[in-house]
Write the structure tokens for this entry.
Amino acid sequence: MSFERELRKRSNESCELCASTDHLNVYEVKPFGKKATLKESLYACSNCVTQIEDPEQMDANHWRCLNDSMWSEYPAIQVIAWRMLTRLKNEGWPQDLLDMLYLEEETLEWAKATGEEEEDKVIHRDSNGVIIEAGDSVVLIKDLPVKGSSMIAKRGTAVRRVSLDHENAEYIEGKVDGQQIVIITKYVKKL
């Protein structure tokens, strides 16, 4: 069976990134060895390939398709998903997907090989310097008045499944007494 026929079969005759069925071709994910193999290739539409090759042609909304395709079992698709989400992370929603995306160490090295780095990633730390990740639980170490309401978030209150502010390392968000609030990281301790 030919290389392209294998990819057609694997992709079910559709783009492995956006599921389009128009203008499909084999796309070899750089860098690869002397000759790209099935593992280092994917079946992609011309719209996806154009945007991968030329960042000036980027349409951020087109890449919302990665919400599904990033979970592919094939490393070539995972690598392109990571690269495109990294390229678009300032849009907001891609950073959430990047936070969820898990790549094997070898696959992540391949993804970073073209220089699409997370160079300015914001790191959130609690009062003890421990890194806080999205979905972690924290406890308040001080009574905090909530701006815009008469509520006071009491010391010792556990805040479960916090979300991160991707632009400011000092802010996290979570629910306290059923109300979503912004919390300053120096007033929390990770559980």
About this structure: The chain has six helices and twelve strands. The first strand starts at residue 24 and ends at 28. The chain has a mean pLDDT of 89. The radius of gyration is 21 Å.
